[in-house]
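Entry 14. Structure prediction run on the chain below.
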Amino acid sequence: MKKISVVTPCYNEEGNIEELYPQTKAVLDSLYGYDWEHIFIDNDSTDNTVKILREITEKDPQVKIIVNARNFGAVRSTYYGLLQAYGDAVILLYADLQDPPSLIDDFVREWEKGYKVVKGIKTSSEESSLFYLIRTLYYFFIGKVAEVKLTGHFTGFGLYDQEVIQILRKLDDPYPYLRGIISELGIKSAEVHYRQKQRQRGISSQNIYRLYDYAMLGITSHSKVPLRLATILGFFMAILTFMVGMGYLIAKLIFWNSFPLGTAPLTVGLFFISSVQLFFIGIIGEYIGLMHMRILKRPLVVERERINFE
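Output returned:
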């Protein structure tokens, strides 16, 4: 009998766990001929999430828990959770209930057709229209600069064959960009489209800084365009500056007494060039920071405990 593993990363989701679990269980129980397990990986929640999960595991041995020693961040914790699943198919399902558990059935049907990866793609969202627009523009931008074709509005929610998980285990990446890695592997995938719901309970931990971190991780992991843009822009800025300087020199020589050099052009030019330099120093810093993290080879997470694992 084939086994399906559902992996749910969570952090302070006490308001959603009690609803997510029965919804997911109902869908999994309806899949004829499949065994299943539901693995929750908790990122050191500060509320009652772990307490609720313990109560669930006491009643249902098919539910398993991994509790991290501290908050290692969603990127690392989510990826680590996938690596701990050994079902024939592994489904990543977030705890906020914005992605419907009912789509598990659709994922499995596509997997049965032979697809190794089934992606859940947001076609619309009940979240803020501004945030959805910003996400759309980001996916458009990264789609243009990335060296591989990245899937827009794909957050990782989907199904991964165990063969794909085995490949992920071999990568040894301490700060992996899951969405980009899946595209990089070039594995033929299916897409299931859905409308993302709005979070009903709890507060999302995805603040502006973390969203920026995800965005830069995607760019620095899969594109050299920003670095090359800095070189190209610097070259043309040098030519432009030289031409403007020569123009000022010629004008001053011809109209010596009537052509004032002034300080405004110098001030504006200085601030413009300084801001461009600072911007690209920041870009270079992002690449160096990611390289530094990967060179250190630290573990994805450190576990505090496991429950219901053999």
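The CA atoms of residues 11 and 60 lie 21 Å apart.
Filed with the rest of this week's runs.
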